[in-house]
Amino acid sequence: MTKNFYLxxxxxxxxxxxxxxxxPNVGLxxxxxxxxxxxxxxxxxxxxxxxxxxxxxTHLGYKVRYVRNITDVGHLENDADEGKDKIAEKARLEQLxxxxxxxxxxxxxxxxxxxxxxxxxxxxxxxxxxxIEQTELISEILKNGYAYEINGSVYFDVAEYSKKHxxxxxxxxxxxxLQSNTRELDGQxxxxxxxxxALWKKAAPEHIMRWASPxxxxxxxxxxxxxxxxxxxxxxxxxxxxGGMDLIFPHHECEIAQxxxxxxxxxxxxxxxxxITLNGQKMSKSSGNFITLEQLFEGAHKxxxxxxxxxxxxxFILQAHYRSTLDFSNAAMQAAEKGLNRxxxxxxxxxxxxPSDSSSLDVSFLEKDCFDALNDDLNxxxxxxxxxxxxRIINLVNEKKETLSKExxxxxxxxxxxxxxxxxxxxxxxxxxxxxxxxxxxxVLELRQKAKExxxxxxxxxxxxxxxxxxxxxxDTKEGTAWEL
Amino acid sequence: MTKNFYLxxxxxxxxxxxxxxxxPNVGLxxxxxxxxxxxxxxxxxxxxxxxxxxxxxTHLGYKVRYVRNITDVGHLENDADEGKDKIAEKARLEQLxxxxxxxxxxxxxxxxxxxxxxxxxxxxxxxxxxxIEQTELISEILKNGYAYEINGSVYFDVAEYSKKHxxxxxxxxxxxxLQSNTRELDGQxxxxxxxxxALWKKAAPEHIMRWASPxxxxxxxxxxxxxxxxxxxxxxxxxxxxGGMDLIFPHHECEIAQxxxxxxxxxxxxxxxxxITLNGQKMSKSSGNFITLEQLFEGAHKxxxxxxxxxxxxxFILQAHYRSTLDFSNAAMQAAEKGLNRxxxxxxxxxxxxPSDSSSLDVSFLEKDCFDALNDDLNxxxxxxxxxxxxRIINLVNEKKETLSKExxxxxxxxxxxxxxxxxxxxxxxxxxxxxxxxxxxxVLELRQKAKExxxxxxxxxxxxxxxxxxxxxxDTKEGTAWEL
Lengths: 485, 485
Known about the structure:
Isoleucyl-tRNA Synthetase, Domain 1
């Protein structure tokens, strides 16, 4: 079972034909959030990217087990491993139990992801729930001679590993440069070399998040959880590992090194989404340069000219290719909002389109071009532009300037509903009890029609004006009276 | 900081004044769901009971840390410990990874609990995430001589424990009776006595959920997780432990024995909600006699005459005292639906009530009686009946048969809003974009009024009939035209 689906593999730096190890099953592991702050646009981009991958693989007929972890422990403040545990830090700040902070932000993350219509992963394992497996992996790496213990902490020995393996195979970093580019040890670390990274950290006495281990009461290094949880739930060798580009180094490079040092395999395809920038700078919590999703939904941020709905945000994200940077601006968001409305409205028109005996133009290219784009490393912006080519045609047919046969209309309906709703994961955003609203508007328009028939124009005009005040535009056409909210 | 709040303590079999160990902080631990099936009415009753306790403690000014666990491993098929792990069993059935099943049903549980408006606990720890802590507790119990290891499994030694401690102090069970009442060992168990219970079970080779331990690759016994997670997140001694009455024995009895055997303390107050019965029988997954919450929301079960909204279900539950059995019937649910509508409508009337210079009756008893009821072991049915006494008065005032001063109206507003929404956790169920709907109905009624003024009775009658078809009843009163959905 091989499809014509190509994915850019960061490991080989080329687009590769996707061939799963155990078709029709596919294992997909994605690095999820560190739950110590509100989800922002950067989180949304990663989640939407891999949601579309998950949806597309499912569309292709694969049975996908999608694992996305929750980092609730072990993510150190900076990549040099000298910082405090991010979550414990926040907890002390708020005088809360660290897991209370993690639970709070995990709930917030889930709520926001539900809103932008990402499907829930098959499994969402917590780092704190897999300490045993992490200590087992450390023991394995120590046994194989690729790690060393100092004062209760265990570090990965990058120099030793590099004698036999390629540290840098994913990121392209070169060990000698890493060595010369990093500053002198400041004496606070026990590490032999700055590029070594923690597998286990001995906890300071005041550190709340701690577990017993053969080396000390402490906590695992950040990179460990993904090595362990991907293997546990997807198997030793599995298909796809995804995450943001900022995770290529050190996180994913270290993950590969850990797996290799323990004699394990890892993912076949490494897929990375690019960043969202804000005024040209990376949007991220740690840099302070970010807009949360809640602020976007509510328009509550000084940079925002208005609120943007979850589907507008989703459409904005998928209008760029996932490997391109995407710069946030109000103009781009407003264009996305307008484009999405046009696309969804066209779906309604398509569903009510009247067929002719024959088609005056060939529309078969739409399906082919659309799936060619998706098969080409999930090129969603090209797929969307193909859909817009169809929007033009559908509107011409609706205006009776072109014709389409029933067969062509049916295949377009199938294409648009499949791609827009199933694959791209867009949806109509309900603005209330639409059925009752529709029925009431219909009643009001009937009363207006009756008033017109009775030549009671003051009433019919009053109705039109009142409806306009409620945001409902009335249009009289040859077919009757139409309206839109 | 002591309030006048009494709770029935299963341990002492009396109502006791609630005095927290570390006021204003309160630690509350509640046994959550085993996530291997859809949530049903029984889950809702437990969740609503402790949600109201959580809300009321918060209302009293306490800062509550509310921990509710998720059992995703270790709950054995039957209390005799001979069965298979419930979750692993279901997983094999569906050819899924056990954690995929657990994740699926955990999500379903959370969605249903959100719908019935239970507040999310501060921490929701997973049993599978606390294996280290569980093995540590087993080691402690072994060291103290209250457990024994046989063939890689570890059992709690109830007879040994009973020499110094009271096994049965919570449930009132007597050891000798337990012994004589249980059947002969069937040879499949390694236990010394039938009433001994598993702390650690060696996993069969095909068993997927397994962890390394000093005794075997296996999994913890079900009772262990709550001993461990309550201590971890609430401290050695803490305030309240809650759960369904069916958990008193063996689960909570075993929990107390484990804590005591390890030299730990446990909860001060043990609170248990009674069961929901269906045709007089306990409603539970394991007996197959149950209606899921989704079936209730959708009316999709052969015993249901209609769908019942989440708030109807909530109101139905809190109209019985949590320690009474509650028998499900369509008649009772329909009465709850009607009662809730009447109560919420009265809130609207109250919020628009016109004050007089003085009150023609004394309403101060309402607040006193309402909180007296809540302080008396959370007697929600009495509190609700007091609110209904007020409903009668508020309607009399609205009909101008009695009068209330501004001060009395303000204090009633505060009472009703606090108790109904904050403490009992009820809410108005939005049926769509109510503002737009309201405005449209208002417009339609204006048009009807105009038709009547023009003596165009055919139009005005047509409007009334059309609205009736949409479920909107129109009433002409002296003050004008009123309507309700």
